[in-house]
């Protein structure tokens, strides 16, 4: 079984569920600024979960499949660190959680750089 496809589909499910939760349950419970933070988390979560699905398909036909899979794990870490910290920040209001967000951004960058390297 392709782990990246499995992980990507689970993370897409969670992104849709969290997006619906934000749109329906949070809209009147958190400030507009915190809602924007939450929505940014959703946006990056969806984009990179779709990226995991694409990488899962790419890994099946790539001669550098191990590098593609490693890139996928960096995207997964990015979703946890970047989007997760934004979810936690928006729900708790603890601004210090924002310090974790750039680590997720770096994980995204590393993952996509690894995809680039695997293709050249």
TrEMBL record:
Pfam families: DUF423
Signal sequence interval, chain numbering: none
Alphabetized UniProt keyword annotations: Membrane, Transmembrane, Transmembrane helix
InterPro entries linked to this entry: DUF423
Transmembrane parts of this sequence: 41-59, 66-87, 99-119
Mode of membrane association: Multi-pass membrane protein
Compartments, record wording: Membrane
Transmembrane helix found in the keyword field: yes
GO cellular component, one term: plasma membrane
Domain of life: Bacteria
Classification via PANTHER family: TRANSMEMBRANE PROTEIN 256
Assigned protein family: Belongs to the UPF0382 family.
Name of the protein: DUF423 domain-containing protein
Source species of the chain: Paenibacillus antarcticus
